Amino acid sequence: xxxxxxxxxxxxxxxxxxxxxxxxxxxxxxxxxxxxxxxxxxxxxxxxxxxxxxxxxxxxxxxxxxxxxxxxxxxxxxxxxxxxxxxxxxxxxxxxxxxxxxxxxxxxxxxxxxxxxxxxxxxxxxxxxxxxxxxxxxxxxxxxxxxxxxxxxxxxxxxxxxxxxxxxxxxxxxxxxxxxxxxxxxxxxxxxxxxxxxxxxxxxxxxxxxxxxxxxxxxxxxxxxxxxxxxxxxxxxxxxxxxxxxxxxxxxxxxxxxxxxxxxxxxxxxxxxxxxxxxxxxxxxxxxxxxxxxxxxxxxxxxxxxxxxxxxxxxxxxxxxxxxxxxxxxxxxxxxxxxxxxxxxxxxxxxxxxxxxxxxxxxxxxxxxxxxxxxxxxxxxxxxxxxxxxxxxxxxxx
Length: 398
What we know:
Largest sheet: 6 strands, parallel
Order of helices and strands: HHHEHEHEHEEHEHEHEHEHEHEEHH
Number of helices: 14
């Protein structure tokens, strides 16, 4: 059997399964070989808990230019998702001006997975050239993703990996991200302490990965007590409300808040309003949090990183464009590193326009978290991203 034939057999075997093999301990030789084909610096980004296998797009007949670009959103109810959608639209419109794209269309299912499936089927019927998406479920869209694949339409997901072998997933290692937040808390406490967990949208694929990583970290530090977990839906007003409710019914001291979202400022405000000391808060940096830090440099304690909407959109655009250009991804899940941000780094990320009211403003990293050369390593024919330039990222204060 040829290597391509073996890959097709592997895809067929996986098509009806709920998940893929894990990086460590996987039994499938094709998946292991795909990882071995990556540069060592990229292999290091994969750990247990990240489903990965060979790409389905080695000999896929890509649609001709100009491309009809369709984007499926599962929830546009927070600034992060809005910012990501706006940046993706900017990039695709720029490609349209250069003749690469004919039109851009976006749908939003507002948290309804059944609706998202119907919207993706509509994209297939319209003859989209590519479908990018933030999936509302890691498994529920597998059938419609396979339908798109069989219709000759590549599917690229971001911020929400799916288990379908017919998609190309672009994501951070959210399991490691959640683990790192837990370890950051343990290093800060350096002993016993109480922790409140604030998760994102319950049932989201990356929330499950993040929670698993956090649980693993705290299991390694049994002197840390997790008092409870609330769901903030990655939305400021929801997060503040559930944290306030928890504080009202739980008088025990809280030394740290484990969270992976961008709502660190409202969590700090909830503790202030409840008359409680503001603990260490982990998470992803945002403009309003940096604004809050400017006003509370003596009390705001932060550890985390930058999972940013502009970067997510850029990586989606880059991967999808390279796919359409026939560059052939090596694996079906591309991992992008997360920049670490410590307390002493906050001044480097803050911009003049960032205040406590700037909840829809996100910082721009000093450098691209994944260079074009690094991105090339994920593709058999890596040759850069047409029409992409990280330096053109809009100024958050513009």
